[in-house]
Write a structure and sequence with these properties.
It contains 23 helices and five strands. By secondary structure, the chain is an alpha+beta fold.
Amino acid sequence: MGKKSRKAAAREGSAGPAVADGINAMLGELWVKIAEGDVFAAEQKASGLLALPLLASGSAGLDKLLARALIAAAEKQPYGPEGAAFLRLLMALGPRDVKREASAALAAFTADGVYPPEWVTSIAKPEPRQAYRGRDVYGDRETVVMSFAYGDTEHTIVVVIDLAELPTVISVVLSKDADGVLKVLEEGEFVTALQPVTQAEARHRVETPLATAGQDPDSVLGELSVLALPLARSRVRRLPAPMPGTTVAYTAADRASAVAEFLRSPRAAEAGEEQVARFWAQVLTGYSGRVTDEPPARVGQSTLTAMLLHVARTFTLSAEQAGGLRAAVTAWVRWAADRQGIRPAAVDALMLHLAETLDGFQENYDDPYCEESRRYLLQYAAPDADAAWLADCRNRREFGAPMPEDRDPADAKADGCEEAGRSVLVATEFANCAPRGQETITLLTGVARVVEELWRDDPPSTWEAAKKLLTDGHDRHEVLHLLAERGGAGGVTLRSE
């Protein structure tokens, strides 16, 4: 099962017309709520407008287009307090480009003596109330509930996070029925129990997943969740920041201790030959402890699927390790479930799921994508390596030398693990990005240098700079341009293609 086959269906179509159509469809409702002075309803409508780039293409790269389109729409409305209120909503909830455009437009309003109504001072400033946290029976999914209020009118934000891989938002719900939301969650099958938590704890749990929500093409949010993202992010900023030192980071020593505990347990007798059992215990324990605040040896159905896919993509197995897979993994999962205190019926379901997952393991292991992925990580993939670090190594190398399915089809057979193959990839991608002659040579030389620095992680600052540029909104191609230029590759002008 290759990477592409695991992806959710990609959003199709031209992003520009989709954004324009969405703006035209939603602005009318927003103007009504602004006229009524309904703060929460106006925020909801504005949040939907601001989320349109993600809804249209799964990318935040349309923020500049969105900013221009929204400001143009505001200028078509009557030039008065309601237009100024619209701009205040954009400034409170929008991304950087939208905030900048809206601020400049509002300055023009106020220069002409046009001010928003008084109620805009409460935009994005509700009073935080209660916070709750609950998980499913395995701990694969976490639900965080936060309530806020404008005066006596309360509303609730529910964020559901998948913990099987990196913490990933899978649902965001806005509701004015706070009591009803809590009742539905407590009676549902996906949350074992909701427990009160501090507002700071709630922020700690959801802030980072919300910040990255909608950016992963492998995890596509539903439409209503996407529309709620800008408002949810704004609400979380109203909560107090976690106190320093409250995050629990489990270390290599913690993972090693869990492995030793398993090997001393009665379950180890069912795991086969000791060295093979140790290998599988290290690999599985390492993956289970990869997330901050998550102790090693947590297991659940979704986590188990992700865990074994991680193995197929990361570790080149010996004949002994492959032969001992079923016995060792079954023993470790039973031990982890017992240690976790999972109720018997859920353990039975987990073991059925394990049997199905093991039946499909070899197919995943033999998939060309997984084979190539293992080659990319060959020098790093020690069984006791930190799984989060391995993931970062994978991302770094794939960023510099994309996997075959993410390249120009003509370069599918180029060997990304060899410098000559990486040079081919650079030439195909960047040959037409500068005028012919010396500027092209300079650009290709600079990008090739950056790609080699990324592949070798030498210096590490290259990858750190790349991640910072990605966070700032640049796409991969732009990042490689910028890094090549900043490294003395010449005065090549970054331009859209």
